[in-house]
Design goal:
Bound molecules: flavin-adenine dinucleotide, iron/sulfur cluster
Number of domains: 2
Oligomer: single chain
Shape: globular
Structural class: alpha+beta
Number of helices: 12
CATH architecture of the largest domain: 2-Layer Sandwich
CATH topology of the largest domain: Enolase-like, domain 1
Strand content: 15-25%
CATH class of the largest domain: Alpha Beta
Mean pLDDT: 96
Number of strands: 12
Largest sheet: 5 strands, antiparallel
């Protein structure tokens, strides 16, 4: 499959990349390209301009800063799970990054690219030929949704693996745009709109992921349910973080809604409790209420809801088996 024609730009500084995005509003950033280039080949994304940020130096690092861990946007996924501190102290992130696609995706794919990947839907992630048998849907620029056609909303799902792991760690992201830089909680990056899943200002680039010191003081894990063990997006993914000392817990899911979602009901239920098998089993019954999956994949919403509870329990078991 061939790429469509596009203008190729290769900045060497972040400010240069920001001004390229500012002057080309329809341009797309290219990091590892493992998500964008596939979408371009399928003609679901056809940007006239592609801005390759891989030549920008100093966006590929993992640094310690007063207990916090700072990860540059272009850090490959493979380096993240191969870093001993992350494997030992932030196992949810190590597992999530090691579960992305295949080894090739983990070698080329970057952490920011993983967080900023496009939402997915069985009517969208298809070849142009496959899609030509139906009217074009909202996300691809048309006037219909083949999943829920009640309002002009796209119900595609966010399917990134690393986002739930970083959400339960209360990670923040640094963004740089024309007006300078700002830092937001990772959860604020996601718009909840399937058509435009990221809430970025014009020309903004995600430059760094910041994991607070507290994250390494608890136990964590990420579990993924997929068709095949390798080269598959999650059907459902669940992340868990907990401080057994403070009896405080955080839960997040992916592939079940337009954005990755926090399991606030489960968190409130577990707050202040010891993690016994019975209480975790009780909490897992709340999982199905934490998101609104729709029929945008070959798996039914009911099946996804059921798997959310099962995966939450296995994430807790996996996390608490490890030393904190
Ligand atoms: C066969 C296959 C299987 C896959 N399996 C999985 C999987 O199991 N789990 C999973 O999570 N993903 C999966 N992916 C998707 C993809 O490989 C990964 O998400 C990867 O981490 C994307 O990173 P990248 O650097 O290649 O992103 P790119 O493709 O370069 O970019 C992805 C998107 O993010 C934007 N972007 C990139 N960097 C920035 C930045 N710094 N600031 C703002 N926007 C940015 C780009 O414009 C683009 O829209 C799969 C892909 C394929 C083709
Ligand atoms: S949810 Fe609807 S609008 Fe969105 S990609 Fe799927 S078919 Fe298209």
């Amino acid at each position: 499959m061939r790429l469509p024609k596009f203008e190729y730009l290769q900045p060497t500084r972040i400010s240069e990349a920001v001004s390229m995005l500012q002057s080309n509003p329809a341009a797309k950033l290219l990091a590892g390209g493992t998500d964008l280039l596939v979408n371009m080949k399928h003609r679901v994304e056809v940007p006239p301009v592609v801005v390759n940020i891989k030549m920008i130096s100093d966006l590929d690092y993992i640094r310690h800063d007063n207990g916090a861990v700072r990860i540059g946007a272009l850090t490959p996924l493979k380096r993240i799970y191969q870093t001993p501190f992350i494997a030992e102290k932030l196992p949810a992130l190590a597992r999530a990054t090691s579960f992305v696609g295949s080894f090739h995706h983990q070698t080329m794919g970057t952490l920011a690219g993983n967080l900023c990947q496009q939402n997915r839907c069985k009517y969208y992630n298809q070849s142009q030929w496959w899609r030509s048998t139906r009217p074009t849907c909202f996300k691809a620029g048309g006037e219909i949704c083949h999943v829920v056609n009640k309002e002009e909303t796209c119900y595609s799902s966010y399917c990134g693996d690393s986002a739930p792991a970083l959400l339960v760690m209360k990670a923040r992201v640094a963004l740089q745009g024309a007006g300078g830089s700002r830092e937001i909680l990772l959860g604020e990056l996601f718009s909840g709109d399937g058509k435009t899943p990221l809430d970025l200002r014009k020309g903004e680039i995600l430059t760094e992921i910041i994991i607070p010191a507290e994250a390494a003081q608890g136990v964590s894990s990420y579990t993924k349910y997929a068709n095949r063990e390798s080269i598959d997006f999650p059907i459902v993914g669940a992340a868990f973080w907990g401080s057994t000392e403070k009896k405080a817990y955080r839960v997040a899911f992916t592939a079940v809604d337009k954005s990755p979602v926090r399991g606030h009901r489960i968190e409130a239920f577990l707050d202040g409790e010891d993690l016994s098998q019975a209480i975790v089993a009780e909490a897992s019954k709340l999982a199905s209420k934490e998101a609104t999956p729709v029929k945008n994949s070959i798996f039914s919403p009911g099946h996804k809801r059921k798997m959310m509870g099962i995966l939450f329990q296995s994430a807790v078991n996996e996390a608490t088996r490890r030393p904190g």
